[in-house]
Amino acid sequence: xxxxxxxxxxxxxxxxxxxxxxxxxxxxxxxxxxxxxxxxxxxxxxxxxxxxxxxxxxxxxxxxxxxxxxxxxxxxxxxxxxxxxxxxxxxxxxxxxxxxxxxxxxxxxxxxxxxxxxxxxxxxxxxxxxxxxxxxxxxxxxxxxxxxxxxxxxxxxxxxxxxxxxxxxxxxxxxxxxxxxxxxxxxxxxxxxxxxxxxxxxxxxxxxxxxxxxxxxxxxxxxxxxxxxxxxxxxxxxxxxxxxxxxxxxxxxxxxxxxxxxxxxxxxxxxxxxxxxxxxxxxxxxxxxxxxxxxxxxxxxxxxxxxxxxxxxxxxxxxxxxxxxxxxxxxxxxxxxxxxxxxxxxxxxxxxxxxxxxxxxxxxxxxxxxxxxxxxxxxxxxxxxxxxxxxxxxxxxxxxxxxxxxxxxxxxxxxxxxxxxxxxxxxxxxxxxxxxxxxxxxxxxxxxxxxxxxxxxxxxxxxxxxxxxxxxxxxxxxxxxxxxxxxxxxxxxxxxxxxxxxxxxxxxxxxxxxxxxxxxxxxxx
Length: 525
Known about the structure:
Helices cover about 30% and strands about 25% of the residues. It has helices at about 15-25, 40-45, 70-75, 85-90, 190-200, 210-225, 235-250, 270-280, 290-295, 305-325, 335-345, 380-390, 395, 415-435, 490-505, and strands at about 5-10, 30-35, 45-50, 80, 95-110, 135-150, 155-160, 165-170, 175, 230, 255-260, 285-290, 330, 370, 445-460, 465-475, 485, 505-510. The longest helix is centred in the middle third of the chain and has 23 residues, at about 305-325.
């Protein structure tokens, strides 16, 4: 099946991937590519429009990313966002200059022309206000701004600091906004993106779970042929949906291998076996590799080294178990878009590496499998929708997110079985209390415990203690690209702290992490 496609040129903004997510929420397929991608590769996607992302540069910087000639020569609609707006203005003979007052954060936008880009959005609540200027909240993040519009452009909206917060040359199909419609802090942003891709570009909104499943089944069959596939099944959302999708495509050609590395949460090993072997009817090999992992991680404290050890051990165990199965040709993974985003691939020179992800950066170079990654272009919410369409149970689809390296990167410092058990028990208490208080909202909240590599003095009974510290982490998020710390009730936190100190041996202090993402990440390591 061929989908109408929007190409997003990535200029290095932290929010670039969110643009792709918003386009897909409009049921339109999008691909995000570096701005420097050769023209022939981009045009081969047969795009129906372009979106230019934001970025950290100024258009006047030496070596600043440029606007490829083919974008304007294509005659297709173009939407420039932040730096993308400035690129459009600069290349079309407008004027861009440093702003006397930089805008970072929320701003009020006055919509002066509620047609076209602002169709069906950005209006006041009055039924008679269809053509009235409407104040709306948007999210700004820029130092430069457009001071003079290019010939043919007209202003669409303004803010106190940006006289041309939105502008367009409707005749040529060029649209530009200084704010970020892709972030949750711009409440009407999704409607604006939909207006561009559907109303202006004319894309057919057929990027749906049913069509995606049909397409991936065809692609998996074409890639695998009569080969055999192994998949590392953790029981998490991503690997579970990948397993169900691949199983739908090739049936018994898939064998799921569950490696119990001792880094799972309480009760998860048993749950994985029961769900997939007994309920889903898949071929499942359960491997107890706890001792192997503990030996490999002995004395290791650096999180990147932990990731690489776990990734390499994972593949080596797969190779060993695969030999027991005979000829195995493919390794399947539940890699999704945020994995690739945060791993900042080698060809994405305009981004910074945040961390090496277990599914991307931890695999050894001499791996003997070809990869099958059917979810690689999906965001977490899209993965869940695919899981629903495939008939997976809610208990799996809405499982708390869990990193591939497991508790190894939540157990800061050295890894021992005693410390892992300590963390497992504390984590179970925290999650149990949150569920009982109905504080874990599906898909928008994540909560877990972290064991810190420090000790503190305490008093328990009549004696002095010197034991470890547990940090509680709970965040709310819509996309896991950005997140805010959850404002949990004090009574709940007090109950969790009391239970952990009383029930978990070796812990005498509990602290709360109140850092948002950014500047922090959701995980500690």
